[in-house]
Amino acid sequence: MTLDRASLIKTALAALVTAVTLWLLIDAEVWHTLRTLVPGADIARLLAALALTPTLPLLRAWRFNLLLWGQGGVPPYALYRVTTFLAFFNYLLPFKAGELSFPVMMGRAYGTPIAEAIGSLVLVRALDLLTVLVIGGVLAHLLFNTGGALGVLTAPVAAIAAVATVVLPVAVGAFSTTGRRLLASLPRLQGILIRLETGMRCPGGFGHYLRVVGLTWVIWGVQIAIAHLSLSAVAQVGPWDAALGAAAATLSFSLPINGVAALGPMQAAWALTLQALGHSWGIAVSSALVWHAVMLGGNVSLSALVALIPSASARWDQ
């Protein structure tokens, strides 16, 4: 199968995922809610949410700057461009294909070996996932009946994710040591493994790793703030409901199944979570669409702006 044909099939599948999801989500109640709430949306809150979106690639660039090179200062503008475009490609391309852009962009911008860039990306995605499991597990335990099955299951998930966050560097080291031993007779593969481990190992040791973890929590704090501002712009909903909705949507986005412009399973996960928390289906779906519009609109606008300012002409690093 040629690359063009494979890309066409993936795009068609993504369009199908989006179409089916929207068909399942949007009914007469949702249309009525959209027509009622959107014209009266709190513009100030939506603008505040949009204003926060440029801080996400900045924090992500700061995290990569610390993870790859042990530098804790303001990240270089070239790295900010990489993290901005990474988010853009993740929205644009189906089935998580946008992640493949990161090692390519890092290689072009810094000459970072592909395996090393992939290693750093794998580590931050693991930290993102563990952080979301902690947040989602704790909130689900508190917001739902703690005596029910969901409350019984979510608390241990949060605890395990918290412990895994702390011991992740040890697990990486153990995996690398075992891998090197097994690949001793295959120096080429062993070299790739070493590069992967280099990307996953903070140059400053465990102290720097904890700073990376701290930045991850700050990133998700901003994500939750954007979700709350977007949700509260159209409905009277508390921040913890928005946080749990965002956590569920993020877990769904981590799966290799997403639609056109990331429209599909993310919004379904958000809507189902808010409905489970007692909100109407109209509010649940409408707020999911508004939140997605804010995130997508902010990222596309920022990517267009960053594309107009190449690294060579930016004064950020000067």
Helix content: over 70%
How many distinct domains? 1
State the end-to-end CA separation: 47 Å
Main sheet properties: none
User: In oligomeric terms, what are we looking at?
Assistant: single chain
- Please report the total strand number as a whole number: 0
Name its key features.
mainly alpha; 318 residues
What does this structure look like?
The protein has 318 residues and is mainly α. It has one domain (21-307). The chain has 13 helices and no strands. The protein has helices spanning 3-25, 28-37, 43-52, 55-69, 77-92, 101-110, 114-143, 149-182, 187-200, 206-232, 239-253, 265-276, 281-308. Helix 10 packs across helix 11 (239-253). It starts with a helix and ends in a 10-residue tail after the last helix. The model has no long low-confidence stretch (mean pLDDT 88).
Sequence-ordered SSE layout with sheet pairings:
Blueprint: H1 3-25, H2 28-37, H3 43-52, H4 55-69, H5 77-92, H6 101-110, H7 114-143, H8 149-182, H9 187-200, H10 206-232, H11 239-253, H12 265-276, H13 281-308
Brief account:
The mean pLDDT is 88. With 318 residues, the chain is an all-alpha fold. It has 13 helices and no strands.
